[in-house]
UniProtKB/TrEMBL annotation, chain A:
PROSITE patterns: COX3 (PS50253). Residues 1-207 form the Heme-copper oxidase subunit III family profile domain. The chain crosses the membrane at residues 31-52, 73-94, 100-127, 139-166, 186-206. Pfam families: COX3. It comes from Acidocella aromatica. Belongs to the cytochrome c oxidase subunit 3 family. It is a multi-pass membrane protein. Its EC number is 1.10.3.-. Gene3D superfamilies: Cytochrome c oxidase, subunit III, four-helix bundle. This is Cytochrome o ubiquinol oxidase subunit 3. The keyword Ion transport does not apply. The keyword Membrane applies.
From TrEMBL, chain B:
The keyword Transport applies. This is Cytochrome o ubiquinol oxidase subunit 1. It is a multi-pass membrane protein. Its EC number is 1.10.3.-.
């Protein structure tokens, strides 16, 4: 470790040009760290969900097991995964350098995401209309927050893809654009993983606590 | 969806009315007069000396990690002063308001602060000191030193670095403006629940506190991401993990806490915000809410946060002890393991902040034991410092005095912490000022570490040393003040003084309270000596050498003093943990590169500053429920981020000749010619 090596004739003291770092790898690494932090926000909401998923906290209102449909959730899961698949096809096209392929992949991802959001938000709206909105109970507050936190991530991803559609068209595959496309891929997969956990934890285990 | 709030509301100004400005309160008027004068002096002198352009271009738009670090530290010092004044108010209030016969002034029954105002003072004190003084001071140091210690050109993301700074500034501004527009939280720095919920706390105070924490927390998280990426990706060639200086290592540990713990706070505050703004029931009393949930989430962040603060201080002590003992750090690998251990165990001890909640013997047992385990790595550190000093050639320069004091304070703070971790003891002293004294010992370790570090690295950043004599006066008065304030506080705590009291019924506490006031007066002296130290040193400006203390060990002392904006003209090759010591041992400390290559630098930009100020506007608008302004500034931020992503500015290139010329002017000795004789391949990359 701290072993002492004597300087010799071939000792190199300076490295001209060594500061040229691989910016794409730094950016994807940094973004990965951001996702780590984001995952902890979501973990905190899940922790709350675990605590509040309890008849005491339903305040006389419904718990998830009373209104959630596992098969509808399954449909949503397939849509999210389909959206991720579509984006993955975009990254395959990125390897080939095909602007058209990347754009089509992203458009597919956006469309599926919009369908997903339509179903999810529609469910929340129906719940509110039936008098079980987020202000009904501690449990429903947390349920709405969990679903909407995920939806917010999706919305943000959609906005990001729209911007990238323009940038791919305008700039082509410059270093900046490629770094962003790679980060967006991580983000999109992250968002889908969150949904899968929501599905398992809320929809499938919803009744048990 | 918005919940109804008390009082008037208008679409244009939200809840903001003229009544929000407390012009009838003499204390706040006085504060305002001082703040306004200070503001006028600063702005006036900037205008008078025609420095507006300079400040804007060279500072507000800067993405240079050193400048950003210096701005962080200025922010931290200003907030430290404001927090100190809050402390003075609490001490004087408690010294007056003892016993039923104690006098009352300015409308207070006892003392001069009515309970509601007193509550705001201590809530602001805690928030400011931890979040807006300690955190920026340490972040600033990390910003300045970490890239230098690893031989990097800048942080991995210079632009994000500036954004982090200005988000933190926005939070601080929010706290400051709450003095003069509206009020600050009276629900303590931790946010007592359900007291901080809207039904029991309908004013804007809690909102100020919440948004200030929220926006600065965002900045801190970004900064942590930046630090980790910098350390992982930008180390100079040859710097393997076991050659990374210890201060950089602790920054790594701290940043890991930053990325993982701060999001939990973000989530907890966001839920509180939802409760207060749209009427959810996360933490409500009733409606199926659970307020212990908040307390758990808060301390899930809160305890790692205290290690987030103290670990950098441990790193500073390590650097300084080893430099001023002229020895390499004893037990370097154990130091790293201890830092990581503390960061890790810090995650599973949070419930020791509320043993009294009634969690049952099993949980208490677990959290009690886990808390005690933290003492092991902490002890390892203390022993390592002592063994570093053992048989070293110790120079008692000011930084070393601070560092040794920190070790003693750590001992007192750590041992009282151990006492508190035993739940039986905690049941008797919980929420007494004994706890306050415990964590102030720890926080003083941070303060002392920062003062040590400022004295130590000042010459590296500014090119001249701070005045030693005044520095020592500052040190001794500060230490005397600390002893006078906190020893009586430990005693009062054991005697049963509950914390957060604006009125003390127990007159037997009077002598202790008076001692604490004497301590505060001595602190005032230390503030004077601090300012005198800065002023005198600025006036004298005796140029410092490249290796200002003569016993520097790590890379930052290898580059010019003051550090040029490009840090290292040529990236050094690293051969040992203490690279400079290694070069000294080989007689190479004067070796200069023989060739220069162009350097790619990021361009300055005003965007981070604008984003920060928009963030301030947005949160201020949210505090007062001015929806249009909040929406507009948020939208503006999003649009600016998108527009910037279309900007093709890739920075600029500094030509090799410019660097060579700059280096020639900077270096005191021209050793380049001689060096090539001594060193056959002096500084060429041919071997690569
Ligand atoms: C050996 C390490 C430590 C141990 C065993 C320890 C233990 C404890 C315990 C058990 C409490 C809860 C007391 C109560 O509220 O009844 C406490 C409070 C506190 N400690 Fe420590 N502590 C340690 C180190 C630190 C450090 C390094 C810091 C800060 C840099 C710190 C800051 C605090 C703060 C801020 C509080 C009280 C917060 C509040 O209630 O407002 N502690 N400590
Ligand atoms: Cu703790």
């Amino acid at each position: 470790m701290a072993s002492f090596t004597k300087a010799g004739a071939d000792t190199v003291l300076w490295n001209p040009g060594a500061d040229a770092h691989d910016t794409i790898s730094a950016r994807t690494y940094g973004f990965w760290l951001y996702l780590l932090g984001d995952a902890l926000i979501i973990a905190a909401v899940f922790a709350c969900y675990a605590v509040l998923n309890n008849p005491l906290n339903a305040n006389g209102g419904p718990l998830g097991k009373d209104f959630l449909s596992a098969s509808k959730g399954m449909l949503q899961t397939f849509i999210v995964l389909g959206s991720v698949l579509s984006y993955s096809l975009a990254t395959v096209a990125l390897k080939r350098g095909s602007k058209l392929g990347v754009s089509l992949g992203m458009i597919g991802a956006i469309l599926l995401a919009v369908v997903f959001l339509g179903i999810g938000l529609g469910d929340l709206a129906a719940l509110s209309a039936a008098g079980d909105g987020f202000a009904r109970s501690g449990y429903l507050s947390c349920f709405f927050t969990l679903i909407l936190t995920h939806a917010l991530h999706m919305g943000f991803g959609i906005l990001w893809m729209l911007v990238m559609l323009v940038q791919v068209g305008v700039f082509g595959f410059t270093e900046n654009v490629v770094a962003r496309l790679l980060n967006l891929r991580m983000f999109w997969q992250f968002q889908a993983s969150v949904w899968v956990v929501v599905y398992i934890y809320v929809y499938l285990f919803g009744g048990a606590h | 969806m918005q919940v109804a709030v008390d009082g008037p509301w208008s679409p244009l100004l939200g809840r903001l009315t003229l009544e929000a400005i407390p012009y009838t309160n003499p204390i706040l008027l006085f504060t305002f007069a001082i703040a306004a004068t200070a503001g006028i002096v600063v702005v006036g002198s900037v205008l008078y000396f025609r420095k507006v352009g300079y400040i804007w271009r060279e500072w507000l738009c800067s993405v240079d990690h050193k400048r950003i670090g210096v701005m962080y530290m200025i922010l931290g010092l200003v907030m430290l002063f404001r927090g100190f004044i809050d402390g003075v108010m609490m001490r004087t209030q408690q010294a007056i308001a003892i016993g039923p016969d104690s006098p009352g002034y300015l409308g207070a029954a006892h003392g001069y602060l009515p309970p509601y105002h007193f509550d705001q003072v201590y809530s602001a004190h805690g928030t400011l000191m931890l979040i807006f003084a300690a955190t920026p001071l340490l972040t600033g140091l990390g910003n300045i030193i970490v890239p230098l210690q690893i031989g990097a050109r800048d942080m991995a993301f210079p632009y994000l670095n500036a954004v982090s700074l200005w988000l933190t500034v926005a939070g601080a501004l929010l706290c400051m403006i709450s003095l003069f527009v509206g009020e600050f939280s009276n629900a303590t720095w931790v946010g007592l629940m359900p007291f901080a919920e809207l039904p029991s706390n309908p004013g804007v105070g809690v909102d100020y506190w919440m948004w200030a924490l929220q926006i600065s927390g965002l900045g801190t998280t970004f900064n942590a991401i930046n630090i980790i990426t910098t350390i992982v990706k930008m180390r100079a060639p040859g710097m393997g993990w076991f050659r990374v200086p210890v201060f950089t290592w602790v920054n790594m540990a701290t940043a890991i806490i930053g990325v993982t713990a701060f999001p939990v706070l973000t989530a907890a505050l966001a839920m509180l915000g939802l409760d207060r703004y749209v009427g959810t029931h996360f933490f409500s009393a009733g409606f199926g809410g659970n307020y212990m949930l908040y307390i758990n989430l808060f301390w899930t962040w809160g305890h790692p946060e205290v290690y987030f603060l103290v670990l950098p201080a441990f790193g500073l002590i390590s650097e300084i002890v080893s430099t001023f003992s002229a020895k390499s750090l004893f037990g370097y690998p154990t130091m790293i393991a201890a830092s990581m251990g503390i960061a890790g165990v810090g995650w599973v001890v949070w419930a020791h902040h509320f043993f009294t909640m009634g969690m049952g013997p099993n949980l208490i047992g677990f959290f009690s034991a886990a808390t005690m385990i933290v003492g092991i790595p902490t002890g390892v550190k203390a022993f390592n410092w002592v063994f570093t000093m053992f048989r070293g050639r110790i120079t008692l320069a000011t930084p070393m005095l601070w560092a040794i004091t920190c070790i003693l304070l750590l001992l007192v703070g750590g041992i009282t912490g151990m006492m508190l971790s035993a739940s039986v003891v905690d049941y008797t002293v919980h929420d007494s000022v004994f706890v306050v004294a415990h964590f102030h010992c720890m926080v003083l370790v941070i303060g002392g570490g920062v003062f040590a570090a400022v004295t130590y690295w000042w010459p590296k950043v500014f090119g001249f040393k701070l005045n030693e004599t005044l520095g020592q006066w500052f040190f001794w008065t500060f230490v005397a003040g600390s002893v006078l304030v906190f020893v009586p506080m430990f005693m009062a705590g054991l005697d049963g003084e509950t914390r957060r009291l604006d009125y003390l019924w127990d007159t037997s506490l009077r002598p202790l309270m008076l001692l604490e006031v004497v301590g505060i007066a001595v602190y005032f002296l230390s503030v004077f000596f601090f300012l005198a130290m800065i002023v005198v040193s600025l006036a004298k400006r005796e140029p410092a050498e490249q290796d200002a203390w003569g016993t520097g060990r790590s890379l930052e002392w290898l580059t010019q003093t003051p550090v040029p904006f490009y840090n290292f003209a040529v990236t050094p090759q690293v051969h040992a943990l203490d690279e400079l010591s290694w070069r000294k041992a080989n007689g190479l400390e004067k070796a200069q590169p023989s060739t220069y290559v162009p350097i790619h630098m990021p361009s300055s930009t005003g965007l981070p500053f604008i984003i920060g100020m928009l963030g301030f506007a947005c949160t201020f608008a949210l505090v007062w429920r001015i929806w249009w302004l909040a929406g507009a500034s948020l939208l503006a931020i999003i649009l600016l981020v998108i527009i910037r992503s279309f900007d093709k500015n890739e920075g600029y290139v500094l030509p090799a000749e410019t660097i060579a010329a700059a280096e020639r002017n900077l270096s005191t000795v021209s050793v380049i010619a001689e060096q090539s004789k001594v060193l056959p391949v002096g500084g060429h990359a041919e071997a690569h």
